[in-house]
Design goal:
Layout: E1 8-12, E2 15-19, E3 25-30, H1 34-46, E4 52-57, H2 60-69, E5 74-77, E6 80-81, E7 84-85, H3 87-97, E8 102-106, H4 111-120, E9 124-127, H5 133-151, H6 153-166, E10 170-177, E11 180-186, H7 190-194, H8 198-201, H9 206-210, H10 213-229, E12 231-239, E13 245-256, E14 262-271, H11 273-295, E15 299-303, E16 310-313, H12 316-321, H13 325-330, H14 341-356, E17 361-368, E18 374-385, E19 391-400, H15 402-448, H16 454-479, E20 488-490, H17 492-507, E21 511-516, E22 523-526, H18 528-544, E23 550-561, H19 563-567, E24 575-584, H20 591-595, H21 614-624, E25 628-633, E26 639-648, E27 670-674, H22 678-690, E28 694-698, H23 701-710, E29 717-721, H24 729-739, E30 744-749, E31 767-770, H25 775-787, H26 796-802
Parallel strand pairs: 3-4, 3-5, 5-8, 8-9, 21-23, 27-28, 27-29, 29-30, 30-31
Antiparallel strand pairs: 1-2, 2-4, 6-7, 10-11, 10-14, 12-13, 13-14, 15-16, 15-19, 17-18, 18-19, 20-22, 22-26, 23-24, 24-26, 25-26
Helix pairs in contact: 1-5, 2-3, 15-16, 15-22, 16-21, 17-18, 18-21, 22-25, 23-24
Length: 803
């Protein structure tokens, strides 16, 4: 046991610093209870010791920072901390402590926890309230010494035989007789090793009686070898006085008498129980490391910096770098062969840091595998130094982060698109109100102008411009996934077939169009009009990529996406899909263009040749339909867009034939019009009044409810904006239905709030008209709702949506 160092003690805040006669022990106390922490400090003061520097941390997170920044000889650890609890606290502390021994200082006596902590690597397990200053001191010093001994055990094994020969722990002498061995002398420390007294040890059969029964058959024959060879070293289990067994290393030599005959055996015992336990633990640790290194995806490596020679590489090296382990061991710095040329210059300072600097290196670089595949690698390396500070080895981990980077890029892209979508949706709401007024009054003005009136042509041009603006707004809503979808069970083959003639006219004669449609194609649940828009936009994109003509193919098929496929196509989900592919032989695109392809307003066309919303619209429609879109393209080798829509086991509905545009029908019913925008409300009132309807108008929900209560006649239809201050259109409808169960409802909005229209889908029991709308469109929709068979006599469907 190390002696108690005396010296002067100085207290500074959370640290107790002593001025000892020789180097102090640096102790890190991790304890959240201030009273217990003060008690530990007081116990160290009571020793009068100048042997310790104590640093206190109240939680494990702060302690990890201290371990990273400072050096400690030992850790006193409470297992119950604010940010960690139980044995997990020890495991986390041990992972960060590296080569620092840990003594557990627990508040309660828990034998099972103590055994588990010691088995996990704790040097000691002390109970608060049962520790005094001297016991604490001795526990700390013993723990440090025991930890140091175990760390140096492997090195000491090579010298162990010489040490045992010259300085045995227990010495003995045995006389060789015709009947066997007769003990004549044993050193006094036999009591410490076995618990037996010297008198007991000198009994004739004491030794063989206490050898473990399972070892006797192995040990006794060795005695004949001792007679022949005069020297014997053997290990066996020996029963102590308390009934437990210890491992004994028995080293003996046979001496002869004056006549040269074997006479006496001199030997030494060493209790190697701890060594056996350490060896067993070491074998277990090595086995666990081997299992870890051979089964994880990361590459564990050890190499010599002077020669670049690999000392160890885990099997994952072959999968990550593409070279065999034999090549790596035979070729110095073999891993550098595959580093991308553009990354080597940036990697040089990192290599210098790991071989000659003071800290661990951390770098990200690319490697090109022999098969041409490009992989992103995150490398971490730490130098290992000898006693003189020279770097003798470099150890570290190389992790393939290719999929992680791809996922991060996709996440960033999605976040960027989502942010622009929210902005677009907000702008579209107000813009659609303005367009509704412009288009509505333009059409009303056009109705009043006679043929040949010079102002009529100006009104027509104004309406054309407003219609184009409305189209852009609709594209923004499609991109931001804030439009209402009329979902039906759709046969994509029939949809593509109906579009064939239109597409051929669109692409021109210099582009060959071919459709390869599956004969057994499943159905999808989608908005047929929106899917037509997707196909149209993709075909236009392909046509523009083939200015000198080429081939365009539209393909459909059923596909099953398994885990292996989606592993490289995140964030897709496994399942049954219908695939729609559009492939061209055009110019293709670079990786940079492909990554930005679906961004709104991004285009590679000349100014004035495109808005950059076509593919953004495709992306929004596909995502809102619950599908995925994937792009494959190479410069000069064309492009393929693949759309995957979830397959449903239902019979497709027949595609609807567009209605013939006719004069909007008139009506005499009473309509309650609720709109907070004065200009839009005025336009809608005028459009309905022209067609014979009696219009009651309100600027908000409160006014509308008042009208419902005081109006004596029937109210046949509620036309309400979805988003209004104070009360939403849906909230208003719920309350109006309770007052007038026979009323029908038409919602109007240029921006579909998902809290009102759940996930942008039409719910049963109400109709919807999208802004901007023309007076004729409003009149037709009102007539259609009034003539419809469905009445909102039961508000339950809307109540379910509201919740």
């Amino acid at each position: 046991m190390a002696r108690l160092h005396r010296g002067r003690t100085i207290v500074r805040g959370d640290a107790i610093t002593s001025e000892p006669l020789d180097a102090p022990i640096r102790v890190l106390l991790i304890e959240d209870n201030p009273a217990d922490a003060r008690l530990v400090k007081e116990m160290l003061r009571e020793t009068g010791a100048g042997w310790v520097t104590l640093t206190h941390s109240r939680d494990l997170t702060h302690a990890v920072d201290l371990l990273r920044d400072q050096g400690f000889n030992i850790i006193l650890l409470d297992l119950s901390l604010p940010d960690s609890e139980g044995l997990g606290t020890f495991v986390r502390a041990q992972a960060q402590a590296q080569n620092v021994p840990i003594v557990v200082l627990a508040g309660l006596e828990d034998e099972e926890m103590a055994l588990r902590a010691v088995a996990a690597g704790a040097q000691d397990y002390l109970i608060k309230g049962r520790v005094d200053s001297h016991l604490l001191y001795h526990a700390l010093r013993c723990a440090i010494e025991r930890h140091r001994m175990k760390s140096q055990l492997r090195t000491a094994q090579g010298r162990l035989q010489q040490v045992l020969t010259s300085s045995p722990a227990v010495l003995y002498a045995t006389r060789l007789t015709p009947a066997g061995f007769m003990s004549t002398w044993v050193s006094d420390n036999i009591v410490r090793v076995t618990g037996h007294t010297v008198a007991e040890a000198n009994q004739p059969t004491w030794w063989i009686d206490h050898v473990h029964p399972d070892d006797r058959g192995r040990v006794l024959p060795q005695m004949d070898r001792l007679r022949a060879e005069t020297h014997l070293s053997i290990e066996y289990r020996f029963r102590r006085n308390d009934g437990s067994y210890c491992w004994i290393h028995d080293d003996s030599r046979l001496a002869t008498d004056d006549a040269g005959q074997p006479a006496t055996v001199f030997g030494a015992w060493l209790d190697v129980t701890d060594q056996k336990q350490v060896e067993a633990a070491l074998r277990e640790t090595e086995e666990r490391f081997r299992e870890l290194a051979e089964n994880v995806r990361e590459v564990f490596f050890i190499y010599e910096p002077d020669t670049g020679r690999a000392l160890y590489l885990s099997p994952a090296y072959e999968a990550v770098f593409g070279h065999s382990l034999e090549h790596a061991y035979a070729t110095p710095s073999a891993w550098l062969e595959g580093v991308h040329p553009d990354d080597r210059a940036a990697l040089d300072p990192v290599l210098h840091t790991s071989t000659g600097g003071d800290s661990r290196s951390d770098s990200i670089y690319r490697v090109v595998r022999p098969d041409g595949a490009l992989r992103w690698i995150h490398g971490r390396a730490t130098p290992v130094r000898d006693a003189l500070g020279k770097v003798i080895r470099v150890v570290g981990i190389a992790e393939d982060i290719t999929e992680l980077r791809r996922t991060q890029e996709q996440l960033f892209q999605s976040q960027k698109i989502e942010a622009v979508g929210r902005l677009a949706g907000g702008v579209a709401h107000d813009f659609n109100n303005l367009l509704t007024v412009i288009i509505g009054h333009g059409e009303l003005l056009g109705e009043d102008l006679k043929e040949g009136d010079p102002l009529r042509e100006s009104v027509v041009e104004m309406l054309h411009a407003a219609s184009r603006a409305a189209g852009l707004t609709k594209q923004l809503l499609a991109f931001s996934r804030q439009q209402v979808l009329d979902l039906r069970v759709v046969d994509l083959n029939a949809l593509v077939g109906n579009m064939d003639k239109m597409l051929r006219r669109l692409i021109g004669e210099d582009v060959e169009l071919r459709s390869v449609l599956s004969d057994t194609l499943g159905a999808v649940r989608a908005d047929a009009g929106q899917i037509e828009q997707v196909i149209l936009n993709l075909v236009v994109n392909s046509r523009d990529a083939m200015p000198d003509g080429g081939r365009l193919m539209i393909e459909t098929s059923d596909v099953e996406l398994d885990e292996a496929f989606i592993a490289s196509h995140q964030p897709m989900a496994a399942g049954s899909y219908v695939m729609l592919a559009v492939t061209d032989t055009g110019t293709g695109m670079t990786e940079g263009v492909r990554h930005r392809l679906f961004e709104p307003f991004f285009t590679t066309k000349e100014p004035g040749k495109g808005t950059g919303l076509g593919l953004a619209t495709v992306y929004g429609i596909v995502k809102q339909s619950g599908g995925y879109i994937w792009v494959y393209s190479e410069v000069g080798n064309g492009t393929t867009f693949k759309i995957y829509l979830p397959r449903v086991a239902e019979t497709p509905e027949a595609l609807s034939v567009p209605d013939v545009v006719a004069e909007p029908p008139r009506g005499t019913e009473t309509v309650l019009l609720v709109e907070d925008e004065d200009m839009v409300r005025s336009l809608a009132r005028a459009a309905l009044a022209r067609r014979g309807y009696a219009v009651l108008e309100a600027a908000n929900g409160r006014e509308a409810l008042a009208i419902c209560e005081r109006h004596r006649g029937p109210i046949d239809l509620l036309v309400t904006d979805m988003i209004m201050p104070g009360m939403t259109g849906r909230d208003l409808a719920l309350r109006v239905i309770l007052l007038r169960p026979e009323i029908k409802v038409l919602y109007v909005s240029g921006y579909t709030d998902r809290a009102i229209v759940h996930q942008g889908l039409l719910e049963p029991g109400f109709s919807f008209l999208e802004k901007p709308f023309a007076p004729d469109s409003l009149a037709r929709k009102v007539r259609k709702v009034l003539d419809g068979a469905t009445e909102l006599t039961d508000p339950t469907p809307l109540l379910e949506v509201a919740t």
